[in-house]
Design a protein that fits this description.
The complex is a heterodimer of chains A (294) and B (256).
Chain A (H helix, E strand, L loop, with lengths): L5 H22 L2 H15 L5 H5 L2 E2 L4 E2 L2 H32 L4 H15 L2 H15 L6 H25 L3 H9 L4 H30 L2 H4 L26 H10 L7 H30 L4
Antiparallel strand pairs in A: 1-2
Helix pairs in contact in A: 2-12, 4-7, 4-9, 4-11, 5-7, 6-7, 7-9, 8-9, 9-12, 11-12
Chain B lengths: L9 E10 L2 E11 L4 E5 L6 H8 L9 E9 L2 E2 L6 H7 E4 L10 H11 L5 H14 L3 H4 L12 H13 L5 E5 L7 H14 L4 E6 L2 H7 L2 E6 L2 E7 H4 L7 H7 L5
Parallel strand pairs in B: 3-8, 3-9, 6-7, 7-8
Antiparallel strand pairs in B: 1-2, 1-4, 4-5, 9-10
Helix pairs in contact in B: 3-4, 3-6, 4-6
The chains are: A mainly alpha (294), B alpha/beta (256).
Chain lengths: 294, 256
């Protein structure tokens, strides 16, 4: 009665084949990652050391370390996040919790979607016009950070809305029914239960902001800036600064005779920074999800 | 808000509710008397839940909803109420599926008093204990008030929901098909609780189980497709001769 018919056998073979194909496609994603990291580390090996991180470039950037660029990138990312995270999160709370589905809301939605689709080079030009010239911030850390903030903000809005929407509506209704205001509901129930998703979305934008070259190249990043070795506060807000992504571009294309391993080492540091941030995002998410309460 | 001692507690006149262009309640009028259990029966999609949401004005949260007609609670038209939060606190609401908020058991019950501005720990503790006792849950949870409300079983969560609905000391308690997700034993326990509560408050009991309305209600309204088919004392609705043949068929399980 339960004997295998030819039809069943054929179906089982198809099943196995399908599984192998899908699994193979998924696994093929590992190969480029391993190759990229392996290649970079192998080429960068002679220059990689702690000294490389905290040294300043010397001999016309042909030797030495990357401290000014590393600090510059951290400056830009932190500043841009300090602007885009509050705006993005609060805007998303408004859109998801308060806004009615009317023309105003739809226009905002459209703006958010389109803004997140604008190429970074266009953001760069906008930043140049708006912050460098119109607002007279000049080529500076502020202009570059604001440009990065404009670039990351719509994505933070989108990811935060997603996180807020994942909190069941029944929780909100239960709160409203006992006479809680919208804000009491958001504060007591909605935010505590979506904070892991919100933070993940924000942290992922850190790596994007750290990696982009175009927006900062036009607005505040420079080829070279003289900085003391290990100086934690080398730039003021209206200074221009160096940044890792820009530095990598400069070393690879503009400076002849650079020691071969240095651009690769710079790439490894940039990649390491991004992976570190992503790992933090995952750790935060896992930690907060374990505290999830339903 | 001065509470009147006589007259109906809730007066509904020509209530119409539409979501967009689709009208779901077609101009109904009825009274709910003080301290009665008022049963509302009818198949799903007949507008029972929407009616409750009109009464406590959580219908405001559905942006497509358009309400006309009047609902008067204790002499005040709810449409003109400025402090909707006080209105909602006057009306306890229990949803069909148990909703334990992702907070501790204690915080679940203390949530509403806190929202209303109560901060004294002794007062909060007294309210939490009183409400959990009223909802017949105290003995089961008194040793773990600070564990999560969402970890309770379905029946316990539904009693927690009732405790939360009582925590703002409402004068009216609305139960919306409270028994569809819980077992018969728990249902009977909650029904006993309701018989106790009717002494101090008006209870609106929306139910799919006609027998439940028969057991508990003083008067029952049969709502069908957003219209009142019949509203009368239980002795009439559940007798052999209700005014409408449809009512008789429905309560006897011939349709619906």
């Amino acid at each position: 009665m339960f004997a295998e018919t030819p039809l069943v056998r054929r179906k089982r073979r198809q099943e196995a084949l399908a599984q192998w194909i899908f699994c193979g496609m998924a696994a093929s994603m590992i190969i480029p990652l391993v190759l990229i990291i392996g290649y970079l580390i192998e080429r960068a090996w002679p220059s990689l050391s702690l000294g490389f991180l905290i040294d300043v470039p010397v001999h016309g950037m042909k030797e030495g370390g990357i401290w000014p660029a590393l600090v510059g990138t951290i400056y830009l990312v932190c500043l841009s996040l300090a602007v885009s995270a509050p705006i993005g999160i609060l805007a998303a709370v408004y859109l998801n919790e308060y806004a009615r589905d009317d023309w105003f809301n739809r226009i905002i939605n459209l703006a958010v979607i389109n803004l997140s689709g604008v190429p970074s080079i266009v953001h760069a030009l906008f930043g140049l016009g708006a912050f460098v010239y119109a607002a007279r911030f000049g080529y500076s850390v502020v202009s570059a950070s604001l440009t990065l903030a404009i670039m990351t903000c719509p994505v933070i809005i989108a990811s935060t809305r997603e996180a807020l929407a994942s909190v069941p509506r029944s929780f909100r209704e239960a709160c409203w029914n006992v006479g809680a205001t919208r804000w009491q509901t958001i504060w007591a129930v909605v935010l505590p239960n979506s904070i892991s998703g919100i933070l993940t979305g924000v942290i992922l934008q850190v790596s994007r902001a750290a990696g982009e070259t175009a927006p900062i190249m036009f607005t505040g990043a420079v080829f070279y800036k003289a900085v003391q070795k290990g100086d934690l506060f080398p730039y003021s807000l209206n200074d221009q600064c160096m940044a890792l992504s820009m530095h990598l571009y400069t070393l690879s294309t503009q400076v002849p005779g650079v020691k071969e391993s240095i651009p690769f080492a710079t790439a490894v540091v940039l990649l390491g920074l991004v992976l570190l941030v992503n790992a933090t995002a995952i750790a935060v998410r896992v930690y907060l999800r374990n505290r999830k309460k339903w | 808000m001065v509470s009147m001692t006589s007259g109906p507690q809730i007066v509904v006149r020509d209530l119409r509710l539409a979501y967009g262009h689709k009208e779901v309640i077609h101009g109904i009028s009825f009274d709910i008397l003080r301290h009665e259990i008022f049963g509302i029966i009818g198949p799903s999609q007949s507008g029972k839940t929407s009616l409750l949401r009109c009464i406590n004005r959580t219908i405001d949260f559905s942006s497509a909803a358009r309400v006309s007609g009047t609902i008067v609670v204790d002499g005040e038209a709810v449409g003109d109420v400025k402090n909707v939060y006080a209105l909602r606190r006057k009306i306890g609401m229990v949803a069909p599926l148990p909703v334990g908020l992702p907070l501790s058991i204690y915080d679940n019950v203390a949530f509403a008093p806190r929202c209303a501005g109560m901060t004294r720990k002794s007062e909060l503790e007294a309210i939490v204990e009183q409400c959990l006792r009223q909802a017949a849950l105290w003995d089961e949870v008194k040793d773990r008030l600070h564990s999560l409300g969402t970890k309770l079983s379905g029946g316990q969560q539904q009693r927690l929901t009732i405790a939360r609905a009582l925590s703002h000391q409402p004068e009216i308690l609305c139960l919306d098909e409270f028994s569809i997700a819980i077992d018969p034993v728990t249902t009977m326990r909650i029904e006993d609780v309701l018989k106790e509560l009717r002494k101090n408050m008006t209870i609106i009991l929306v139910t799919n189980l006609t027998q439940q309305a028969r057991r508990l209600a003083n008067r029952t309204m049969f709502l069908w497709n957003g219209e009142i088919v019949e509203l009368d004392r239980n002795e009439v609705i559940f007798s052999d001769r209700p005014a409408s043949r449809k009512t008789r068929d429905y309560v006897n399980g011939i349709f619906g």
